[in-house]
Amino acid sequence: MVEMTVESVRINLATQQRVVILKATKQERYLFIWIAHAEAYAIAVELQGTTSPRPLTHDLLKNVIGELGAKLVSIVISDLIDEIFYARLILDVDGRHVEIDSRPSDAIALAVRAKTPIFVEESVLERAGVTLEQGEEQQQSPRAKPEPKRERDQEQDNLDAYRDFINSLDVLDEFGKD
């Protein structure tokens, strides 16, 4: 598993779609998960450090977990099936390990509130993750056959397209605006 952090929550102004961008803590790998407005709002509110006069659903769930004597240990984006991400909440309930199925957006909203780690299964990152820059550790081994220039150029074009796409999105800073 790869530990991730929430890099940002963004909105495509043309389509009004929201995306949460997770970034690996120790490498330049990203995971983009399209989410609904309510969950984008819930994540962004917490990341901005603002509060609601009454508990939002994810605040309520965090409070219930705590009042029942459990602790959210982590969340895991565990699978990708038919372009749908799956997640699990990992709880410690009086020393007992409990896993609960969750939508990734809800799990992330809860994790940012509880300040618990976010993990993504390596198999999910292999299928849906994006590497924006190649670091030293990702270069080919000396025995590997050199990649043809055309393939490197194509890969760079693909990375440039991802960069352009991300730069076209606006950070979700102002919560009342659509």
TrEMBL record:
Q: Where is the composition biased (Basic and acidic residues)?
A: 144-161
Q: InterPro entries this protein is in?
A: BFN_sf, Bi_nuclease_dom
Disordered as annotated region, ranges: 130-161
GO molecular function (one): nuclease activity
Checking Pfam families in the record gives: BFN_dom
BFN domain segment(s): 1-132
PROSITE patterns under this entry?
A: BFN
Q: Return the protein name.
A: BFN domain-containing protein
